[in-house]
Amino acid sequence: MDPSAAGEQRLLQLNEMEEFRKDAYKNARICKEKTKIWHDRHLKDRKFSPGQFVLLFNSRLRLFPGKLKSRWSGPFQITQVLPFGVLELVGTDDSNRFKVNASRVKAYMGGVVHRDPGTLAMEDA
Hints:
By secondary structure, this protein is α+β, with helices and mostly antiparallel strands.
């Protein structure tokens, strides 16, 4: 049991462990970069223009939670596109204008939006 040989052996082990740690950081960085590339490839580029109709996502719908209640409201018309993803919307009655983040809207393709909260009569079969 030579103390100097044991000390050198321990230093070699510490250096080897340091190399493993550096390799782990490098591999984690490579994996993160590949994941970011994959995620960015699947993002859809959404461009909005004034006059376009959109639906607005209501994330604060907590009063009447339910599976069948839609969280999308609208259609709203875009009056102005501001920098940094801000849209100015106006409702169908042209009375209220408000600004929202572009990530909360999606393009409206047309069709009828039913707002009747009435009941649906089920018949016995």
